[in-house]
Amino acid sequence: MTNVGLALKLMAMALPAMFGVILLFMAIIIVLTHLFPAGEERGEGE
User: Fold this and answer.
1) Which domain of life is it from (predicted)?
2) What is the spatial distance between Cα 11 and Cα 13, in angstroms, rounded to a whole number?
3) What pLDDT is attached to residue 28?
4) In whole angstroms, how far apart are CA 33 and each of 4, 8, 17, 30?
């Protein structure tokens, strides 16, 4: 019982952390793509 409770507690703590990391990663990618357009302007320039 104790091990199960500990495992549930760890999972409950790990899930929000993983979700936060994923959201942070997506936010960084979005910011980078907005700051540096994916070669669209450069492609037209050539």
Assistant:
1) Bacteria
2) 5
3) 95
4) 43, 37, 24, 5
Burial pattern 3-34, b for ≥16 Cβ within 10 A else e, equals eeeeeeeeeeeeeeeeeeeeeeeeeeeeeeee
Whether residue 46 lies inside any domain: the answer is no
Q: Report yes or no on 43 lying in a domain.
A: no
Tokens representing 31 are 């910011």
State the total domains in the chain. 1
Q: Is 38 helix (H, G, I), strand (E, B) or coil?
A: coil
